[in-house]
Structure formats: structure tokens, C-alpha cells
Amino acid sequence: MKKTSTRFDAAWFKRFYFDPATRVTTREEMRARAELIAAILRHAGVPVDSILDAGCGIGLLKPAFARALKHADYVGLEASEYLCRRYGWTQGSIVDFKPASPFDLVVCYDVLQYLDDLAAARAMANLGRLTCDALYFSALTIEDWRRNCDRSRTDRDVNMRPAAWYRARLQRNFHYYGLGVWIHKTRETVRWALES
Q1: Model pLDDT, residue 6
Q2: Pairing with 48, which of 25, 72, 75, 186 sits 20 to 30 Å away (CA)?
Q3: pTM higher than 0.85, yes or no?
Q4: Predicted local confidence at residue 2, as pLDDT
């Protein structure tokens, strides 16, 4: 796998985000995802005043969260030098990012498959420190590669792990709430048996 600083350049983002023929997601899909996350957190009674979008890419979630979670401050964290220059994101890695205080909501969407096992495990431990209330987490798993993703549009130069690998590490700090949302163990919420 290429080094992160050179891998995620303009050509990579053109292929996976800007070119309609090869992009992996759309603004509409990410808007729906932000609305879903916001609705789940309202249902759980979790207020959101601060958001960390770890691996924010081109920032497709930012305008969607601005509508769905109107009063929340958004911080985009990104490893790509190219995107940080272009969009003004905070440059850094989820592996060792240490802000002054944790965030109400941390989004880590399709990032950790780009890290080796040791770095991914460190990043998952750091998610527990970065998140005071809720985490939205997703990563390409072996199961998704076999059954769910569009392989013609999905970056295959990644570290695929089984979903159980991620779940085991997430459960150290979080309770699963549903549809990718995890609630920090320090936050009390009611989780109905058939909803979680």
C-alpha cells in the first residue's frame, strides 16, 4: 500500500469522488447518511454540539450535518495533504489525533481499512478517547467485499478484516445502538432489545 501522504492525491480523489463514472458515493447518499445519524441520535436523546469527521475526504457530510444538526461545530480531520490544502481541513490521523476536548459525535466512515492492523487497533482505541457520546463507524470488511460492494468502484488496495475484528474493539468503549451508531459506555441511553 502507498504511503498516505502520497496515495490520497488529486488523481485518487478524482477517481473515487469527482468522476461520476467511477465515484464511490454521491452528495445525495451522504446527505441521507447524515440525516439518518442525526435522527438516530435525536431518538437516543443524545445532543450534538460538536462533530469530528475523521477522514472527512472532500467533506460531503459537512453541509448535510449543517442542515441536520444545525448548531453543531464541525471539524474535518484528514490525512491527505492535497485535501487539507484545498479545503482547509485539520491535517492529522485518527491513530494519534489529540484535540483539547472530546467530541459529542465522531464519524469514522470508510477510513480504517486504509490502516494496517496495528495502526487500525490504535485508531479504534483513540476513538474511545475522542468520543464523549456517539460514534458513527463503518469500514469495508471482508464480508462486504464478498457480498455488498460494487468492486468496479471500490478501492481494493486496502486491509480487509472481518466485521468481528472491528466489533470486538468497538465494544471495549461503546454499546451498539444500530445502523452504524455506537454510544459511548459513559453515556446512558435506553436500548430496547429489538432496536439494538
Answers
A1: 63
A2: 25
A3: yes
A4: 42
Low-confidence residues in the chain, pLDDT < 70: 1-6, 196
Phi first, then psi: give them for residue 114, nearest 5 degrees.
-85, -5
Residues with Cβ within 8 Å of 121's Cβ and at least 6 positions away in sequence, in order, are 169
| pLDDT of 196 | 67
Do residues 128 and 172 make contact, with C-beta atoms less than 8 angstroms apart? yes
Q: Which residues contact 82 (CB under 8 A, 6 or more apart)?
A: 8, 9, 10, 13
What CA–CA distances, in Å, run from 50 to 44, 100, 111, 133? 16, 12, 20, 10
Q: Which three-class secondary structure state does DSSP give residue 99?
A: coil
**Helical spans, DSSP H, in 47-102:** 61-68, 81-87
Q: Are residues 136 and 181 in contact, defined by beta-carbon separation less than 8 angstroms?
A: yes
Nearest to residue 68, comparing CAs of 42, 87, 89, 90? Answer: 42
Considering the segment(s) 4-184 as one domain, its CATH architecture is: 3-Layer(aba) Sandwich (3.40)
Measuring CA to CA, which residue among 71, 37, 3 is closest to residue 177? Answer: 37
Report the pLDDT value the prediction gives residue 25, as an integer from 0 to 100.
86
Residues 178-196: pLDDT tens digits? 999 999 999 988 888 887 6
Cell 454521491 locates to 26
